[in-house]
Write a structure and sequence with these properties.
There is one protein chain. The chain has one domain: Rossmann fold. The termini are far apart. Helix content is 53%, strand content 10%. With 277 residues, it is α/β, with parallel strands linked by helices. The chain is built from twelve helices and seven strands. Bound molecules: iron/sulfur cluster. Iron/sulfur cluster is lined by residues 111-112, 115-116, 206, 208-209.
Amino acid sequence: MNFLTKFENSVKKTIKDYKLIKKKDKILVACSGGKDSTTTLYLLKKWDYNVEAGMVDLKIGDFSDRNLNNVKTFCKNNNIKLNIFDFRKEFGFSFCYIRDILKSKNIRLNSCTVCGIFRRYLMNKKARKLGFTKIATGHNIDDEAQTILMNQFRGNTKLNAKLGPINGIIKDKKFIPRIKPLYFCKEDDIRKYSKLKNFPVNYDPCPCSVMAYRRSVRTLLNKYKMNHENIVKSFLKIVPELKEFYKNGKIYYCNNCGEPTTNGECKTCQLMKKLVK
Ligand code: SF4
């Protein structure tokens, strides 16, 4: 069996084994212009799922422009509807402005943390309003192994309980479930697949990427040639119990914007308030 078929079969198996998609699902693929989300979008479309692309335009200069153009080209070539969510229009400021103001106020959150909070918020809100029933992301086995260990080292068991091929612990009508079809794919294999398929993809890292801790964990994993699959597969044996343990947590609706949160006020509104204080 050639590489392409083997790769595709492994993704199909993940979707089937973990029942990631039901026939009536309408799926929004959270696109970044990178190889992982583009591969996810391509495969779901290839297999005739009801799928559209969603992209948050972060407006990080030339980097965002190139990514957006790539996603536009890809969607046009593959006859996929693209939904663009304009960060500045939604929040009133560009992502870089928000990050810089928070920094100037000594709020010690790195770019990726701030970006993740705003992007997840926007993607969930838009997906729900547009009638999507699932959000698919391009997370791979390398990402997952790193995240498991990062949470473990920080003692953050609750965050680990959210992981797995389907993200989250508590179901709520305002939370759109997130699925990870590439969950068991190695990053190198996704890169190889994407290059063989000639996807219009930007392989350069984001200029705002500040993931020092993730980078250290990645280096550690590589240095000791730790097997990502072993880490993830052994983790999956305990994750049902972790989810069960945390399943009675409550979901609130933010008292400011009405979006779902585990606190009285969602993290996005908390950060927006800090901008103007
Ligand atoms: S690398 Fe960080 S800042 Fe750049 S898009 Fe990803 S999460 Fe956002």
